[in-house]
Amino acid sequence: MIRLFVSLVATLFVLVPAAVQAQASAQAVQPPAFSSSRIIVETRGTGPDIIFIPGLGSTGAAWRSTADRLDDRYRVHLVTVRGFGETAIEDNVSGGLAGPAASEIERYIREQRIDRPALIGHSLGGQIALRVAADMGDRIGRVMVVDSSPFFPSLVDARATSAQVEPLARLGYQALLLFGDQALKSQVAAFGVDMGLAGDMVFQGLGLQGGDRRVLAQGLYEALTVDLRPRLSQITAPVTVVYGWTRDTEAPRNRLEGLYRYGFEGLPRTARFERIEGAQHQVMIEQPQRFLAAVQRFLS
After folding, report:
1. In DSSP terms, which residues pair with 189 in a beta bridge?
2. pTM value?
3. Tens digit of pLDDT for each residue in 249-285?
4. How far apart are CA 257 and CA 224, in angstroms?
5. How far apart are CA 32 and CA 27, in angstroms?
6. In this structure, are residues 191 and 199 in contact, taking their beta carbons and an 8 Å threshold?
7. Which of 53, 102, 117, 235: disulfide with 121, CB 3.0–4.6 Å?
8. CA-CA-CA-CA torsion for 156, 162, 163, 169, nearest 10 degrees?
């Protein structure tokens, strides 16, 4: 009996330090909690990482139905830009919007030790995803942009420049601050008409979940004026472009692929294009099953 007791005590002295060491090791590799005055990130699931970036006036909830179908096999990260929806504006009260948001997503990837995530961004979120991919190079595994362009006005005229569009964008910025997003779309509809399909894509992104007018106005201004085409050559990850499409040959969306091919031709490797029939700008909400199938092809 004494020998058995001694043996049990000896075993405890061997196992307890080992357990403590294992626990300490697990705690050591756990990344710190992420906090940002620019973005919010909701994370769930396990597996390869997918970072979802919503568009203008949307929160991470815009991706929830897609993420719900993936989080049993992937770890999904739903980004919200502060000031969209009901979130507090914090540091997005002034200065740029997409650039700081991209920088914070990059910090999130580094601090959380995320290895080559897939980025999926809609509209303005697609532009943010392109910024992150250009900045981080081979730290990014792949990129999907959804109804987005490196320069929205190029969907109207490939010769358009930021300087030419800036007066219209500034007027839209001021009108949004004065009237709000719903009034901007209804009372100042001429902006969207003047910009053709590009205007429709940018203006339709407003108001899905709304947000602080200051953030919406800044996002609108940047979506119309920022030209990311010079940065495409820095993106090493493969890029997939998903967009809403119609069989109606009279509709502008029927001709989107040619416009997109021209806009993305600066990529080192040719982008893959996926059209989602029956969808307009909010592709993932208007055609969730077809969009999910496109995402699964993208991830495989």
Report:
1. none
2. 0.86
3. 888 788 888 888 999 999 999 999 999 999 888 899 9
4. 20
5. 10
6. yes
7. 53
8. 80
